[in-house]
């Protein structure tokens, strides 16, 4: 399994952040805020796999793109980007040596914080 940067997701996150569709709550707990498995299923049913993919910074190109297993490092709740989600993605990417994903998350965090 090789997880690579999902550049479409990064660009989509940038668009959302620039449009103000972001939850900047520093005290947010991503594990509590991220969509549930059931919420993901509803989103996929209503919007399709391409839309689902855009909410994940990581993609496993060897996995079936019509499975959740293909996507990792979520950053939002299908409505807005969550600062806590970007921080979680950055942290996990760094922990598992996914440097491109970690770098992209840092850049998104800078955009959220207005330091880019």
From TrEMBL:
This is Uncharacterized protein.
